[in-house]
């Protein structure tokens, strides 16, 4: 998963501008100029937006994520977040390549047993791909042959999401309740240093993390 772009380029100032737009009769240019080099004021306005639950102003910031080599288990869960836009590789049209995610099984404490189980996963996943290939070679359309493919198959998805919705996604998915794979994605999104600086904070281990909407 990688953050491809975000816009506009100075999210903090943009959020502050949106806040002032609701209170100031000046033109938008005038509002922007009044915020030029006013770091402390910008921060205060962003804090105020959160404290007063003025969440709409966060919707003006957009992030584009590219997510590759993740399982369909993950994408099935992520697309439940309705307030985002997605573009996912089509299994109907494309020939799905032999790639899959094997769960880490790190809760299995015996390393030997863990390794054996992971190998079991791999052999079964590979087997399903072999059947898929066999079917397509015998004239079965990819849209039908894919019914045989496992949930662990690799897929890719592009996500466009605004800051408000992203914070919500991180809040519910970067949690011990959530699936390990989606948690990894959410914690990547949380750790981005390129986000709006007043939405992030540094934790005790020096990692930059999102400051969540309470
Ligand atoms: C730990 C965990 C376990 C889960 N287990 C299951 C499961 O077993 N089965 C299952 O089906 N799902 C499961 N889910 C998915 C979950 O129910 C949500 O569908 C998913 O997390 C998306 O959350 P959301 O609806 O808040 O997000 P979004 O769709 O992005 O919506 C964001 C917010 O907008 C508002 N909103 C959006 N649409 C509506 C609407 N139609 N009506 C009212 N308010 C709306 C809500 O405030 C919502 O929180 C699980 C999620 C988690 C985190």
Could you characterize the architecture of this molecule?
43% of the residues lie in helices and 17% in strands. By secondary structure, it is of the alpha+beta class. The strands form 2 sheets. Strands 1-2-4-3 form a 4-stranded antiparallel β-sheet. A two-stranded antiparallel sheet has the order 5-6. Strand 5 and strand 6 form a beta hairpin. Helix 1 crosses helix 2, helix 1 crosses helix 3 and helix 7 crosses helix 8. Flavin-adenine dinucleotide (FAD) binds next to helix 7.
How is this fold's topology laid out?
Blueprint (H helix, E strand, L loop, with lengths): L1 E6 L3 H11 L6 H8 L3 H13 L10 E10 H7 L5 E5 L22 H27 L4 H4 L8 E9 H11 L6 H12 L8 E3 L5 E3 L4
Antiparallel strand pairs: 1-2, 2-4, 3-4, 5-6
The site of flavin-adenine dinucleotide has 10 residues, from helix 7.
N-to-C CA distance: 26 Å
Low-confidence stretches: 193-214
Shape, per Cα inertia axes? elongated
Give the spatial strand order of the biggest sheet: 1-2-4-3
> How many strand elements?
6
User: What is the helix content?
Assistant: 40-55%
Structural class: alpha+beta
Total helix count? 8
Ions and ligands: flavin-adenine dinucleotide
The SSE order reads EHHHEHEHHEHHEE
Strand content: 15-25%
As a whole number of angstroms, the C-alpha radius of gyration is 22 Å
The major sheet is characterized as: 4 strands, antiparallel
Oligomer: single chain
Q: What is the average of the pLDDT values?
A: 84
């Amino acid at each position: 998963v990688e953050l491809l772009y975000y816009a506009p380029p100075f999210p903090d100032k943009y959020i502050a501008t949106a806040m002032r737009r609701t209170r100031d009769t000046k033109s938008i240019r005038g509002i922007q100029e009044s915020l030029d080099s006013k770091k402390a004021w910008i921060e205060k306005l962003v804090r105020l937006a959160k404290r007063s639950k003025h969440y709409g102003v966060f919707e003006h910031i957009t992030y584009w994520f590219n997510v590759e080599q993740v399982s369909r288990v993950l994408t099935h869960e992520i697309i439940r977040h309705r307030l985002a836009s997605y573009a996912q590789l089509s299994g109907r049209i494309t020939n799905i390549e032999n790639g899959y995610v094997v769960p880490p099984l790190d809760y299995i404490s015996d390393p030997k047993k863990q390794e054996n189980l992971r190998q079991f996963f791999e052999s079964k996943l590979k087997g399903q791909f072999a059947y898929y290939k066999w079917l397509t070679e015998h004239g079965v359309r990819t849209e039908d042959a894919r019914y045989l493919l496992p949930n662990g198959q690799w897929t890719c998805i592009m996500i466009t999401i605004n800051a408000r919705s992203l914070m919500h996604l991180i809040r519910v998915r970067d949690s011990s309740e959530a699936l390990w794979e989606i948690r990894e994605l959410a914690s990547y999104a949380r750790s981005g240093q390129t986000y709006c600086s007043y939405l992030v904070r540094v934790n005790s281990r020096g990692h930059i993390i999102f400051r969540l909407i309470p």
